[in-house]
Design a protein that fits this description.
By secondary structure, the protein is mainly alpha-helical. It has one domain. It contains 15 helices and no strands. Helix 10 packs antiparallel against helix 11 and helix 14 runs antiparallel to helix 15.
Amino acid sequence: MNKSKNKILYLEFIRIISILFVIYNHTGIYGFFMFSVRKPSTIMFWIYLFFSILCKFAVPVFFMISGILLLRKDYNMKQYITKIIRFLIIIFVFSLIYHLFDLHNNNLDFHLRVFLKKLITCNFSSHFWYLYMYLFLLLSHPFLRIISKELNSNLFNYLIVLVIILNGFVPTLTYALFKQQLSYCYLLTPLWCTNIIFLYPLLGYYIENKLDIKKKNLLYLWIVNISCIVFSMFMTYFGYRVTGILNEGSSQMFHNSFVCVNAVTIFITLKYFFEHIKINKILLFISNLGKYVFGIYILHLLMKRFPSYEIILDYVLDNNFNGILITLTICLYMFIYSFVITYVLSKIPIIKKLVGF
């Protein structure tokens, strides 16, 4: 199989891996937050915490893929406006669907003013922030396209180091020193380089088009990545020692501190892997599922609003499934159900455009 075909497959394959970890990120105390109900003195606390931090690479990788696909093209004004309008329709339709489900489940009436307020404030589901960020990525495309052409190895390395220092070491070291989160002086706010729609699309574009990956460097990259994850784990434990609590807010304080390193490492590793192997039927089948990922992403949390979710959850809890089996069951439930719905929608004319076809 030729190299260009392998490139396409690696992007599809990494989509599948990323969506599985996105789903895992939304499993709550039955997966992602399972470490918070374990004692730090147990090995399972550290194992669950490791995967909880590891999974944060998923959404940044989605934006890296978007950078590869979007920044390689110059759109004319008609194409540009069409893409934006299409995505606005997607946000509106699925926001309405989630809203109607909530109204039904809570026996509430529909009020247009309430709906519009929630639409403007992105308040229908926790994962919808990605849709709004992608919309702003589309709006920023003309500027990012110009920047991507000028990005060289020195600027790439400078950007990585800058993000690691400002997003990783400065917040963690200040917390270690003062035992509380400190905000940057507004004059020094590093949002321009750490913003997800600036950083990751450019990294994805550079890695795909300009970076020469050497096998010997992968080992060093993974050593750095694992070290960063372990450091984030220690800081999470340190935060617990300071506050005495592990809740949904405080326990994620350092989960994204070095997510840039994690995302780049996994992205580069999979890119190298797919460009240096012979694609077999299994990998080809898995990669072909990548086209359904956008629909799966939008729909997977809707599966939690179905009665079947509570039935499955009650079953695994009543039958004393262990923590890992509970997590796998929930993840497979959300993945399979949302995949089936996406597959059906992808066969319906016009409607299929809502799930990325």
